[in-house]
Each structure stands twice: as C-alpha cells, then as structure tokens.
Specification:
The protein contains 12 helices and 4 strands; from the N terminus they run ααααααααββαααββα. With 443 residues, it is mainly alpha-helical. GO terms for molecular function: odorant binding; olfactory receptor activity.
C-alpha cells in the first residue's frame, strides 16, 4: 500500500488552477489543449503583472516612502512565491520522483505516527493559506473603507490619479489612468483574480516543511525498532523475529516450550549442541535485525539529501526575501507616521503570515535535528549490550557516531536555519528599523 499523504491532491489543485500543467486532467483531446492554453495565459499574465508591479514601485511609489515600502514588500513577496512556484514547475519530474519515492519506500507500520504526520501536513497547508489569505483579504477590505483627505491627496500626488477615491488593492504600471471608471472596475476584479492565484500558489511554499514532517515521522518509526534491540520477547513468552521492519513483517517462535524434534532424555552433549545451534541462530538474527535498522536509516538519509538537493537552488532567494519581508513589515508596524487602522490590520497579518511561515520552516529544521538526538537516546536505552556479536555492536557504534552530527536544514554549507537563525533574523530586522528611523531623524 502506498504511503498516505496529500501532496498529490495539492498538485491536482495547482493543475486545475493553471499554476502547473504536468497532469493530464481530461480525456478529451480538445480539453487538454484548452487547459494548456489556459496555463500559458495564466503564466504570461503572472509575469507581466509582476513586471508591471515592479515598474510601478520604482517609478511612482518611490515619491512617498511609506507607500514605497509597502509596494516593495509586495514585490518581494511576489518574487519569493514566484521562485518557489517556478522551481516546482520546471523541475516537476524531479519533484514527482521524490513524491513517488516517498509513496513506495516510506514505512507505514505505526498507523498512529502516520496519521499524525498526515494531520500535521494538512494543518500546514491550511495555516499557510489562511494567514496569507487574511493578509490579502485586508488589501480588498481596505479599498471599501473611507480614508482621510490627506491620504487622498497623497495618492493623487504619487500616482497622478484623476479620481483618487477609486483605490485598487495594489498598484500596477499601466499607460492610462487606472482610477478612471472605464478601467477601474476591470482592474479591480482582475487584481482579485491575481490575489486568488497567489493564494493557491502559496501551497508551493509548504512543500519543504511538509516533506520534513514526513521525514521526522520515519525517524520516529525507526526509533521504535531501535528500542527493541535485544528485547524481542512479548508477555506470552513468544519471540518475535522481524523479517522486514519497514513493512512490519515478522514471525513468532515459542521459546517457552521444548522443541518436538529434540528428545527429552537427550545426553548433555546433545543439549550443548542444541544450545549452541540456538545461540548461533540468535546471533545471526541479531545481525540481520541491526542491518535492517541501518538499511532503514540509510534510506531516510538518502531521501533527506534528495529533498535538500531539490530545494537548494531557490533557498538563497527564499532566505533573502524572507529577511526583507520581516524587516519591511516590522518597520511599517513601528513607523512613527500615522497609518489607518485598516492598513495596520493588513500590515499585522502580513507580518504574521511571513514570520510564521519562516519560523515554522526554522522549527522544522530543529525537529529534524532532534531526530538525531532521539535516535542516539533510543540506542542508549535499548538492550544493545545483549548483542553477542562484536560486529553488531560496532555497527551500532558507527550509527551513534553518525547521529552525533547536526541534522539541521542546510544549503551550500552556509545557510543553516533553526531557532537561533530566526532570532538573528529578528535582530537584523530591529537593527534595520533603528537605522532607517535614525537616518530620517538626522535628515
């Protein structure tokens, strides 16, 4: 049975909304062609919208600093999400290979652990989308609420609008007056379409935390088997011999009864030979059991390295963009200039969305590092000393040495994220706020 997860369903959602186009969703040929055309149109609209937004920020919004910082924040968010999406879109074969490997090789022996990982995966998708949705909803609500005459005058001066009371959710560079009623309503609902597209695109941001969550679940299953080293007798006096720990396959042997093949009145020499045979079998089983554990551990490590290799290309952009997002949001929230309650609401949820997504990624890195700590603890608290073979003990010692390394999410041997890294990001954000504030006071 394939390992249960929700990534296939998420990929189908991305295909139906035109963000991805790797799946054949329709049997009819003409429907497939229309879906490809729809995906291409959506991709072209997304690229042109991003370019237009950046042009608006660099040519018009720079006339007023708070407006410039707000639009710069949006540009950074769009660029970050676009890189996440493009990394998955143009390397979809590699991503599907990772998902297929997870389905075929991950152990689902412990149903409780698997269900908890699946539930956590769904909660990650819902949390990421909900937080970003609240921030984007603030952009829509803000356009319906009245603002002061001072802000209207600022918008008129910054964007050269004839009807400044006709406000859009965000601003794009267009060769005409976007506040003109002839174009305003079209642009308004077009931006809502882009907002919904960004909301669905945010599911791509959750792929790395979701995969790390599934990896930690595999480590938990592995620890259960490690703790059973040397302790394979149950309460009924039956010895459990595992033939495949990843699939949970085993056989029982009753060691409380004497074997029928051995006579009860055997000589001492025969008894010794029988005990020697049993001991050899037990030593052989201990070797095989530990080798199964090592093979399971190596499979998890290889999958982990494959995941990091896939996401390595866009992590530099992701780290820089998230650092900028946190700093820009924090500056606007603590800005001495008066801002409306509606914009404050939007900024608060933007800061909450970006910081919580970034923090959870750092938290997942810490959970991955804790897996090595728990693995060492499981070996220490197992009955490893009952293993009679020296090579088996040596294998366990090498496994402990491997688990002593740090297992944080690390890219290019430079970006090692975790709780400490996230605290440093907040410190840099505070330093940025202080620098900009003091610079404005001095000028």
């Amino acid at each position: 049975m394939a390992y249960p997860h929700s990534m296939r369903k998420v990929l189908r959602i991305l295909n139906y909304t035109g963000i991805m186009n790797h799946l054949v969703l329709y049997e009819a040929r003409w429907k497939q062609v229309l879906h490809r055309v729809f995906c291409v149109i959506c991709q072209v609209i997304g690229i042109l919208s991003l370019i237009s937004h950046i042009l608006s920020t660099t040519t018009r919004s720079r006339r007023f600093l708070p407006e410039f910082l707000q639009r710069m924040l949006e540009d950074t968010c769009f660029i970050s999400y676009s890189f996440e999406y493009l990394n998955c879109k143009y390397r979809m074969d590699e991503f599907l290979e990772i998902v297929t490997r997870m389905e075929n090789t991950f152990s689902s022996v412990d149903k409780t652990i698997v269900k908890n990982c699946h539930r956590t995966e769904i909660n990650i998708y819902l949390s990421f989308s909900s937080l970003l949705g609240l921030a984007l909803l603030g952009s829509i609500i803000e356009t319906y609420l009245p603002i002061s005459n001072e802000e209207l005058a600022i918008l008129e001066r910054v964007y050269r609008r004839k009807y400044p009371e006709n406000r859009l959710e965000t601003n794009f560079w267009v060769p005409f007056d976007d506040s003109d009623p002839k174009y305003y309503h079209i642009l308004f609902y077009f931006i809502i379409f882009l907002i919904l597209r960004i909301l669905v695109m945010s599911l791509c941001v959750a792929f790395l935390p979701v995969l790390i969550t599934q990896i930690t679940g595999q480590y938990k299953i592995l620890n259960l088997y490690i703790r059973n080293i040397g302790a394979d007798l149950d309460d009924n006096g039956l010895r459990k011999y595992f033939t495949n720990i990843e699939r949970g396959e085993f056989i029982y042997a009753d060691v409380s009864k004497k074997s029928k093949n051995i006579p009860h009145n055997n000589s001492p020499q025969e008894t010794i030979k029988s005990n020697v045979v049993k001991l050899k079998r037990q030593v052989l089983y201990e070797k095989l059991y530990v080798r199964q554990i090592i093979r399971f551990h190596q499979r998890i490590i290889h999958f982990e390295e494959r995941v990091f290799q896939f996401f390595k290309g866009m992590m530099v952009v992701k780290v820089i963009a998230n650092n900028m997002l946190v700093a820009l949001c924090l500056y606007q929230l603590t800005s001495p200039e008066a801002i409306s309650k509606e914009r404050l609401y939007k900024l608060f949820f933007e800061f909450l969305a970006f910081s919580m997504q970034y923090f959870y990624l750092c938290h997942c890195s810490e959970l991955l590092d804790n897996c090595n700590i728990n693995l060492r603890t499981a070996i220490i608290h197992s009955f490893w000393y009952k293993n009679r073979d020296l090579s088996t003990r040596r294998d366990l010692t090498l496994m402990i040495l491997r688990a002593q390394k740090r297992n944080h999410v690390k890219f290019y041997k430079t970006f090692c994220i975790g709780h400490t890294y996230f605290i440093n990001v907040l410190k840099y954000a505070v330093n940025f706020v202080n620098f900009v504030t003091l610079s404005r006071k001095n000028t």
